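Supplementary Text 2. Reproducibility record for the structural model of the 392-residue chain.

All settings were left at their defaults, and a single model was retained for analysis rather than an ensemble. We include the record here because the model underlies the residue-level annotations in Supplementary Table 4.
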Amino acid sequence: MSSTLKQHNTPPSRKGRRRSPDSTQRLITLAQTVAAEPDTADLSATEERLIALVLRLVTQGSDRKIWQALTTLESRHAHKAADCVTFWAEDAASTIELLMMPDASVDAEHAATPPDPVPGEATAFLVPVIFFTPPGTSLPLTVPLGHTLDALAHSFRQHGLLGAEPSLVLFPGLYRLADLPDTWSERRRWLQILCAHVTRQTANPIPLASPDPEAEPEEAPATTLRLRFLVGAVLRAGGEDSTTPAGPLWDTETPLFASDAAQVAALTAWQHTVTALLERTMKTVSVWPGFPDLWSEALDAGVDWWNHVVVESAFTTYCAQRGVAPDAVLADIRWNADASAWQGAFLTMADTGPSWFWVGWGDPADQRDALLEALRSLGIRRIALDEQGCEG
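Retained model, structure tokens:
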């Protein structure tokens, strides 16, 4: 044992020790410093340190520390600093660096002499899909492997949503909202699993989709509508230094379409292709795909779209089955504390229809306002609102 170590056989006094700030406090300090800096095209040294710290916390699974920092920043009304932390946490969860073949493609096999791998980047995305099924019909948990899954991946390039050089891969699962990771670290782990399978590295099993929970008899009509998500990644050699466009959905700096109208036309054509591919393998199911987008954007858009479809479907079905005029229907809305969501049902003097939920997160008051706006857009003016138990 060295003399230096021998000198410290007895613990030194805490007095005089300088305690370094924990990760949460460092995150708060860095974020506030970055928020106070003038906006520039390049990242400052402070923001680079912030990015590295957020990435480390997400990689370690320390989302709780990031949320603690965000809570503190919001309580101080440091909204710009909080937005900065959230942005880089989203980036760490949805983007990873990896080694890949320059011509990696879901459509190509290994060449006779494969080139050396180069640094690359993978970005996660989602596609919300609504399925309409007859009562009692189960929905498959996966897209059929082989031609259907390959054709779905190829459809992005077919309709110009993907650049010429990047590649795109999809998990086969049709995931419920409850299946998707709800932390940044878990989302990053999913992306790592997907990329490990693409690069043929040893990987954890692909996450499985789960079946719908068994519905109560009185809720059976609502089971004919189902929201699912396709999970995928865009892989691009060169990563953020690449000069080739990933595509208009993933790289806003280098759009492939000359106009927004052209992009909408391409997205609509892509939707028709996806619908045909899935309905060909699911004979009794009607498919309504939403637009693909980066993870958080697609998740929010998909849930909002789902909410509107559920409310409109429940309303039109109630009116049609009972032969009542829309203006004779009352929307009964109340806060369900167990589900932490707004629960609704349509009723008349005669009876009450099946209940439904407005799915969401964030401020319950904001969710309430969005629900009320959706009801009014359907021409519903008679609304009973019970906010008991809601803290929003």
